[in-house]
Design goal:
alpha+beta, Alpha-Beta Plaits, 2 domains, four-stranded antiparallel β-sheet, 47% helix, globular
């Protein structure tokens, strides 16, 4: 069972984009915009397309989130149509995620030799 329920799926030919509105059940307060975009990309098989999360709205008293996404074939067209502030926020979030992943990889890399050294000390 999918936790994504499609509310509307409109092909906006005038703006050359697909506009999706979906409900995410049981994720109230836990879902981030990039995670939602990844989920939509996987659910609707949109690999190679630009999925821009425009709005995530939580519903009071429910664990339900309604998200609006714009799907473009061309990133240049998306940047032309959508406010640049949205892309700057998404880029900042992606940078923070990448920084956190690199930090965890570095700590794992530095922890491994220390653990091996401790194990070597115990065998002697």
């Amino acid at each position: 069972m999918s936790i994504i329920e499609t509310i509307t799926d409109v092909d906006n030919r005038f703006l050359s984009r697909r506009e999706l509105t979906c409900n995410f059940a049981g994720l109230g307060g836990k879902l981030k915009s990039l995670e939602a975009a990844d989920m939509v990309t996987k659910e609707f098989k949109l690999d190679g397309k630009v999925v821009v999360p425009m709005r995530l709205k939580t519903h009071v008293g429910k664990s339900l989130i309604t998200g609006t996404f714009y799907v473009y074939d061309d990133e240049g067209l998306a940047k032309k149509h959508i406010n640049p502030k949205i892309f700057s926020r998404l880029d900042k979030t992606k940078a923070k995620i990448a920084e956190a992943e690199s930090a965890t990889k570095e700590t794992e890399a530095t922890d491994t030799p220390a653990e091996e050294a401790k194990a070597g000390d115990k065998t002697e």
